[in-house]
Amino acid sequence: LSPGAKMGCFTFIKVMMILFNLAIFLSGGTLLGVGIWVKVDGESFLNIFGALSSSILQVVNVGYLFIVIGAILLVIGFLGCYGAQKESKCLLMMFFSVVLIIFIAEVAAAVLALVFTGLAETLLTGLVTPLLKEKYGLDKEFSKIWNITMTEVHCCGLNNYTDFNNSYFYETHGSYPMQCCDMKEPCNSTLAAQSAVEGCFKQILEEIRTNAGVAGGVAAGIAALEIAAMAVSMYLYCRLDEK
C-alpha cells in the first residue's frame, strides 16, 4: 500500500478504536451507576426488575457484581479510547495487557466451571448456606431476592430444604419457606421431604445447560471482540513506531 493508503487505514482503525472504547466506557459507567443504585436503593430496583429476577445473578450480590464489572469496563474504555486518541504507546500497551488478562481469566473460569462443577457447588454451599441460615427472614432485601428466586425458578434453598435447618427463619416460624413444599403451608420437614423441591443451584445449572448453545455463542462473541480489540491495539502500537 502507498503511504497515503496506509495513513488512511491507520486513521480509520484509530477512529473505530476510539468509538468502540467510548461505547465500552459509557456501558461501564451505566453498569457502575446501576450497581450503586442497587446498593443504595435495592428495593426499588427489585420492584422494577422483579419479573426478570429468575437468574443466576440472584445467587450472588447483584450490586457488587455490577459495580465491579462497570469499574473494569470504565478502565478498559478509558485506556483504549484515550490511548488511541492521544496515540500513547503506554496506554495502548496497558489496554492490551488488561484485555489479555481478562481473556485469560475468562478461559480459565470456563475450564474450571466445566471441570470443577462439583467444587463450585461445595464452595457456594460453604458461602451461601450460612447466609441463608443467618439472614433469610431477617434481612428484608435478602429475603425478597431469595423469595423471588425460589418462586420463579421453583426451587428451595441452594441445595434443598435442609439449608434452612437451624436457621433464623425456621427457629422463628417453626417451618420451612412455603416454596420448599410447592407453596403449601405449613411446610414441615415431612411435607418438604415429600415435595422433593430441588435446590436453586441445581435448577439454575440445569437452565444454563439447557441454554448452553446461547451461552456459548455469547461467550464466543465476547472472546472474538476481545481478540479483535487486542489485535487492533497492537496494530496501532506497532504503527506508531513507523510514524
Summarize it.
The chain has helices spanning 3-40, 42-49, 62-86, 89-115, 117-135, 140-153, 168-173, 189-195, 200-210, 212-240. The protein has 243 residues and is mostly helical.
Largest sheet: none
Distance between the termini: 15 Å
Q: Which parts are unreliable, with pLDDT below 50 for 5 consecutive residues or more?
A: 51-60
- Give the number of helices: 10
Tell me the radius of gyration.
Answer: 23 Å
Helix content class: over 70%
Descriptive keywords:
243 residues; 10 helices
What does this structure look like?
This protein is mostly helical and 243 residues long. 76% of the residues lie in helices and 0% in strands. The protein contains ten helices and no strands. The longest helix is centred in the N-terminal third of the chain and has 38 residues, at 3-40.
Write the layout of secondary structure elements.
Elements: H1 3-40, H2 42-49, H3 62-86, H4 89-115, H5 117-135, H6 140-153, H7 168-173, H8 189-195, H9 200-210, H10 212-240
